[in-house]
Specification:
Domain Heme-binding protein Shr-like Hb-interacting: 614-685
Structural class: mainly beta
Strand order of the largest sheet: 16-17-12-11-30
Helix content: under 10%
Number of domains: 8
Low-confidence stretches: 1-40
Distance between the termini: 137 Å
Oligomer: single chain
CATH class of the largest domain: Mainly Beta
Shape: extended
Keywords: Membrane, Transmembrane, Transmembrane helix
CATH architecture of the largest domain: Sandwich
Protein name: DUF1533 domain-containing protein
Pfam families: Shr-like_HID
Radius of gyration: 47 Å
Transmembrane segments: 12-32
């Protein structure tokens, strides 16, 4: 019974054995012979790669592998199998060697988390997990190193200031170390962005007292991706002195990662030259700045340093053997050739020198005059400087003259080599080498090439001398190209461009068509004979006489000026000058014989146009001119009509030194052009707007101070001083009273303009006598004839009314 039951009911272990056998059989069948329509069982990927993410202010690196990972060893041993390469080092080191505070752990998801004791920087970081130290879910161990490269630290710092560029305190550029944007509201337009920027910037010229830039008119904007530009209008300076600080409020700018700035106080003043010293042997110059400086040019500073001697045309760069170095606040220059003379100055190119903040001045900087030491045992400096080309010109239509700053010689072995190495051009033709019949000579500073045939067949020429053509007497060779540019051999004559008299006939000026100063070619042994080459005629060329013994002739710029001891009162002077007595600076052209009439010898006329009284116009009397006046004409610019005045009808009178035009000729407010025609003279023109006399000037009542005497001051506005109105002479009169008694007058005949005028009275009891007072007047004339003071030209106004009048006058002039 029992045995039968046992046979009919299999044991539990037997059932399990049978099931396992069936499963194993199934797996063997599936593995060996997969049945179509069934998937293979899933297996884990091998550990071959990973990615990395940086967080926690760049101190945490999370390495996520391409599949689940677990250490094959404990964490301490795993850490010893991990290496790190930082951007700044360029090589792998063990994680513990990198920083003793580095720790690791593995997450439940199978990621490796590395917490660093020092943050990552840069974009070229890498993590390496050595082979065999991690395994996947199938317990398959990595058989190669897993390396994550190009791990970039996140940007967690706002833009940093790198320096300011400015030009004489204006045009200030603030530079930063990364791209940024203005942190204005998202929907702000360009005008609102600019307003936001202005509201967040202030400037302290003394480094302490800040003034918002919005208090000034100016230009304040982002310039490019890394720069802010600031400039005040009205020629006001952003940077003043050596301690200017620009404050940028917190949150004004942000970078692409969203990092906004904290409050920034930016020192923006560039370095300033304090002093210059020269060594006893004149070979070394030390330039001291107000602070430590650095070379901003990457070793090309010496190429932007120059020595100037005297004039703007005498700039000289540093040469071989000259050296430049910077030691803290000192720029030291060693000259192979010692400096000489008293007029040396050194120019440092703009933008070349920066202070520790990176601030630079973009304009060239000039030192004070440097005087070389003289006397004693100082040797004459050796000449180590090559000759400097100055200019070239053609003379006699056949000679090309090349001028240098010192004596020159041929740097080639032969003249033929020199001549055949010149490239030259004339219209539509280039040539290499000069004609074989050209000859070469050197004389002092000038090299002359003589052409066998005239050069006048063409209107212009150009000559190029390659380097190494010229040397000085010390053997220094000019290694630069020399360009003799576009010279016209037919332009050989100086012609008179313009001749004119002074208004009083005391001198005559003759201006020629020269682009350079004239040279007196009559000088012999240091004495000019130019005066002997000039004769004049006062009868329109019928007869000529020599200049008077006391007359003086001078060459001034491109003019010949004749100063007459006795003023010429006639209407014109015919002047005759012998040919070839003056030349241009290069002697490439000389004057032709001159026989010209110079007119416009009319007196200078001053005065005001009055609408309700007679108008007096004053001139230095010329009886000859006055006797020849035939017509006085008035042109009304408002009515665009002319009126010829009639002497017989008393429209005007002409007396010694004065032309008076009667009351009623001029209408108030109209603008007039007045002309005076005299027989044998050029027409004299003057002009002005018609005023009532008391409207010519506005003046304040005198302000009186009593200290060491009495000083009275008035402020006044000249209302007639607008556009081209005629300005006259008038008398300013101050009268001192003791109570009601006049005791002193100070008067002067002046050409008065808008401004402040004062008079001083020498009174011993000024400080103790309260009865002193001063009255002031402006009258058309003042003399010893107390019964005739002309007309009053001024109305007393308050200072406010005066200021308003000045503003109106300036507005009219600017329009």
């Amino acid at each position: 019974m029992v045995s039968n039951d046992l046979k009919s009911k299999p044991s539990f272990m037997g059932i399990v054995s049978k099931v396992m056998a069936i499963v194993m059989t199934f797996m063997m069948v599936f593995t060996i012979s997969p049945v179509e329509g069934y998937a293979s069982p899933v297996t884990a990927d091998p550990l071959t790669s990973a990615t990395a993410d940086v967080s926690n202010n760049n101190t945490t690196v999370t390495v996520t592998f391409n599949t689940y990972a677990a250490p094959t060893i404990d964490l301490a041993d795993l850490k010893s199998n991990i290496q790190i390469k930082r951007s700044v080092s360029g090589s792998f080191v063990d994680l513990s060697a990198d920083n003793g505070n580095n720790v690791i752990h593995m997450t439940t998801e199978g990621a490796l988390v590395i917490t660093l004791g020092a943050e990552l920087t840069g974009t070229a970081n890498a993590i390496k997990v050595k082979a065999g130290s991690i395994r996947n879910e199938d317990l398959v161990t990595s058989n190669a190193d897993v390396t994550v490269s190009g791990i970039a630290a996140k940007d967690i710092t706002p833009p940093a200031f790198t320096g300011a560029e400015s030009r004489n305190g204006g045009d200030v550029y603030l530079s930063f170390d990364e791209d940024f944007s203005i942190n204005a509201p998202v929907d702000a337009d360009s005008e609102q962005i600019e307003t936001f920027l202005k509201s967040n910037i202030s400037v302290a010229a003394d480094g302490v007292n800040f003034v918002p830039v919005s208090a000034h008119q100016g230009n304040f904007r982002q310039n490019g991706s890394r720069t802010i530009y600031l400039n005040f209008y009205n020629d006001m300076k952003v940077i003043l002195g050596t301690n200017t600080i620009i404050k940028i409020a917190s949150g004004t700018i942000k970078d692409s990662a969203g990092n906004a700035n904290g409050e920034m106080n930016l020192p923006v003043s560039p370095p300033v030259i304090l002093s210059t010293e020269i060594s006893s042997d004149n070979h070394d110059v030390t330039i001291t700045f107000n602070e430590a400086v650095v070379d901003r040019t990457e070793d090309s500073l010496r190429n932007r340093i120059y020595v100037i001697r005297g004039t703007n045309s005498e700039w000289k760069g540093l040469v071989a053997g000259d050296t430049v170095s910077i030691n803290s606040a000192k720029l030291q220059i060693h000259f192979k050739e010692a400096l000489s003379g008293a007029n040396n100055q050194i120019v440092i190119g703009g933008g070349m020198i920066a202070n520790r903040y990176g601030n630079v001045e973009t304009a060239d900087r000039l030192t004070a005059l440097i005087q070389a030491n003289v006397g004693g045992d100082y040797p004459i400096p050796a000449d180590t400087t090559p000759p400097k080309y100055l200019y070239a010109y053609i003379s006699n239509a056949q000679d090309l003259n090349i001028v240098f700053d010192e004596d020159v010689q041929n740097a080639y072995d032969t003249d033929a080599q020199f001549l055949q190495s010149v490239q030259w051009y004339r219209p539509n033709q280039w040539f290499n080498g000069l004609p074989s019949d050209a000859t070469l000579t050197f004389s002092g500073h000038v090299a002359t090439i003589h052409f066998a045939t005239s050069l006048t067949g063409y209107p212009y020429y150009h000559f190029t001398f390659y380097p190494n053509h010229f040397k000085d007497t010390a053997g220094n060779v000019n290694t630069d190209y020399v360009y003799a540019n576009w010279m016209n051999p037919q332009d050989t004559v100086l012609n008179l461009n313009n001749g004119y008299f002074s208004h009083n006939g005391r001198w005559m000026s003759l201006q020629f068509n020269s682009n350079t100063d004239l040279v007196d070619q009559t000088v012999v042994d240091g004495v000019s004979h130019l005066k002997e080459k000039i004769t004049i005629s006062t009868d329109h060329g019928s007869s000529y006489t020599a200049l008077g013994a006391l007359d003086v002739v001078m060459v001034q710029g491109n003019r010949i000026t004749v100063f007459f001891h006795d003023a010429k009162k006639v209407g014109s002077v015919q002047i005759k000058i012998t040919e070839n007595v003056v030349s241009d600076l290069y002697d490439s052209k000389r004057n032709e014989a001159l026989d010209e009439e110079v007119a416009y010898n009319t007196p200078d006329i001053t005065g005001y146009v009055f609408s309700n009284v007679a108008s007096d116009f004053i001139f230095e009397d010329n009886a000859e001119w006055r006797s020849k006046v035939k017509v006085v004409r008035v042109s009304d610019d408002d009515l665009e009509t002319d009126r010829q005045l009639n002497l017989e009808s008393n429209d005007y009178t002409l007396t010694e030194g004065k032309l008076t035009i009667s009351n009623g000729v001029f209408q108030k407010g109209h603008y007039y052009y007045i002309s005076v025609d005299a027989e044998g003279y050029s027409t004299k023109y003057f002009e002005g707007r018609a005023y009532q006399p008391s409207e010519i000037f506005y003046m304040t009542a005198p302000v009186v101070t009593a200290k060491n005497g009495i000083t009275a001051t008035i402020n006044l506005v000249n209302n007639a001083r607008n556009n081209n109105s005629t300005i006259g002479n008038q008398s300013v009169v101050f009268e001192l009273f003791n109570g009601l008694t006049p005791i002193s007058i100070v008067a002067a005949n002046l050409r008065v303009d808008t401004g402040t005028y004062s008079a001083n009275f020498n009174v011993s009891d000024a400080a103790t006598n309260p009865n002193f007072k001063v009255k002031a007047y402006i009258v058309s004339k003042y003399s010893n004839d107390s019964t005739n003071l002309g007309v009053n030209l001024a109305t007393v106004k308050t200072q406010l009314e005066l200021d308003q009048a000045i503003s109106k006058t300036e507005s009219n002039n600017n329009n």
